[in-house]
Design brief:
The protein is α/β, with parallel strands linked by helices. It has 11 helices and 6 strands. About 45% of the residues lie in helices and about 10% in strands.
């Protein structure tokens, strides 16, 4: 079966390096893919983070894959992939939105912003605490991939910008299949039923024994889900129908 190419969009303060556990698995499955760094992250550290600039980055990444591709984002990357897909004039074949089934607002967002502001005042911007927690939760290798070029300075502006993102409204506007992929241990899945109800052609996929960073906890399962969507998106393009 033919497979669509896939654009991978990383999470907050991380970079394209977070996809390293998944990329060899996609290569092995014959899935052409590309990664990007969002503004303020990775190779684009120092650039201003805005939602519009992130949409431009995703648009450019999709164009680099030929325009007809699947976009797959995790956490911040998932929210932004939905936000982009709801507005682009060149829609993707499908969207995989992982670890982002909760609206970025209210008390949780405020608490996250407060924590980011506290860490920003530390001499190392919280790097020591972040690195320790990543090693304990993810293991040495995955933590190294996730934290290779951590942009702590982007946390506060990115979280402030996310207050203007409305994922349920974005989901309702998207006309292509959307798969919501969540780890069963993830606190970012508490509104997954509302998110699924907002999707026109949707599917909810739960990854067992995985927390927020699914790519670190269950890279093989996550890669299989990406491969499945990449293949089914081509079939859906030829014969549009509701996605089971």
């Amino acid at each position: 079966m033919d497979s669509a190419p896939v654009l991978l969009v990383h999470g907050i303060r991380s970079s394209s390096t977070m996809w390293r556990p998944v990329q060899p698995l996609l290569d092995r499955a014959g899935i052409r893919h590309a990664v990007i760094d969002l503004p303020g992250h990775g190779r684009r550290r120092g650039e201003e983070f805005t939602i519009a600039a992130c949409r431009e980055a995703i648009e450019e990444g999709m164009a680099g894959l030929g325009g007809e591709a699947v976009v797959a984002g995790l956490s911040l990357g998932g929210f932004l992939s939905l936000n982009w897909a709801a507005r682009t004039a060149n829609p993707p074949l499908a969207v995989l939105a992982a670890s982002c089934s909760v609206r970025p607002r209210g008390l949780p967002l405020w608490a996250y912003q407060l924590a980011a502001q506290v860490f920003a005042q530390l001499p190392d911007e919280g790097r020591a605490v972040n690195d320790l927690m990543a090693r304990l939760v993810l293991g040495e290798d995955s933590a190294a991939d996730l934290n290779e070029d951590v942009a702590f300075e982007v946390m506060v502006p990115a979280l402030r910008a996310m207050a203007a993102v409305h994922p349920l409204e974005d989901l309702a506007r998207i006309k292509v299949p959307v798969w919501l992929v969540n780890g069963t241990w993830d606190h970012f899945r508490i509104e997954e039923r509302a998110f699924l109800d907002a999707v026109q052609y949707g599917r909810l996929v739960k990854i067992p024994r995985a927390g927020h960073i699914i790519t670190a906890h269950q890279p093989e399962i996550f890669a299989r889900v990406v491969v499945q969507l990449a293949r089914l998106s081509q079939e859906w393009k030829a014969h549009p129908r509701p996605v089971p």
